[in-house]
Amino acid sequence: MRRVRVPTFRSLRGRLGLRGRVILTFALGAALLSLALSTAVFATSREYLVGQRERSAERQTASHADFVRSVLYSSDTKPALVLQALDIPVGTTLFLDQNGKWSASDPAVAFIPSAIPAELQESGTDGGSATMYITVAGNPYIGSRMVLNDAGDILYELSPVLELQSTLRILRITLFSWALVTTAAGAAMGFWASRRVLRPLHELAGTAARISGGDLDTRLARSQDRDLDTITTSFNAMVDSLQRRIDHERRFFGDVSHELRTPLTTLVTSVSVLERQRRDLPERSVRALDLISAELDHTRRLLDDLLALARSEAGLHPGDLEPVSVETLLSHTLTRSKRSADLLTVATEDRVAARKLSLERALVNLMDNADRHGGGLVAVTVRRDGEFVAIDVDDAGPGVAPEDRERIFERFTTGRPARRTAGGSGTGLGLALVAETVSAHGGTVTCGDRPGGGARFTLRLPRLRSRRLS
Known about the structure:
Strand order of the largest sheet: 2-1-5-4-3
Number of strands: 12
Oligomer: single chain
Shape: rod-shaped
Radius of gyration: 47 Å
Number of helices: 10
Structural class: alpha+beta
Strand content: 15-25%
Distance between the termini: 55 Å
Order of helices and strands: HHEEHHEEEHHHEHEEHEEHEE
């Protein structure tokens, strides 16, 4: 049985976002306030209008009762004629109950007692008079009851209040409409307030993005708001501290590069001198010389990769972005790395914004990785992938296990033994340097399976839509 996941309050908050929650809060607040005010206004207005109408009906019934009392008991006129002689409003009906004998001002009324609601007939036991809001045959009326004499003759008057109902209906619609308008105004106010509230956050996000892009001189302007000024000051202090650390790391990288390269160059020179004399050396010394030479070469490559990775992570990218033809760059890279140009297949002529030296080094690292750990480079393909240019680097090795396809881009990760070959060992930094370089170009690098076997490393770089780099 499939379970239906009911959205929780926390998940709804996450979907709405801060701006949506601010707008919803203002809208709900305005809706609740307008609903409360509308309800209070309608209840007060209804009570006032109905009360006023009841008092008017009561005065009208008293006037009619005086007329009936003065005419009916001073002459032999029939009760129905007396009631019909009254000048009553249209729709109003008078009933006279003389000890169970009923008369009406409207001759069309057949069964008179059924026209008088029981609550009106039973009311007025304390003084004999009563006025109330009643419903007869689905229509609203103000019903009045007044005792005429000591014999218990009772005059009833039913006055229609359709105009009152219409007034109340119009009032209800008007208040509801204004409640909707107030809710919409509250939502608009919430939108305006959310923009004012989120503007500093957008400025903060924009400044942080420029800083992460390498513009370390960017700072937030001081705010007149004391609360925001605290955030601004703290943010600028954090960026100042970050810039000092980066400057310190730059100097450190320069010192490390100089201090390590100098003795390494001396060792390489010394080994070169011994290499020229290897014919005069014993066999054991030759083997030791080969080990030393291999280790020096590995140390040199490790130092180069470490410094390149450190510079990339610190945002110290050599050169500026410029329009680069992917086809030309790959052809040049294959030629310089002494690989066959026949490995290249180009399905698109798109260009990318790149730093040639950095991107070329990343491509060489991928190709070296294919030769060293993947059984050899078999193909390099350039294709369009939506808004990106995709570069597929295929090898003939055993592939990369799914659980290792993200881990291999970490530092000092050389893959499982199945991918290690006798072609030489890597520094464990090549793929990490590839990932950092591609990320600095606004792209991504992933690892997957090559159709037919082997691994496929795919670089995706944003393609240029025009011939000019903006």
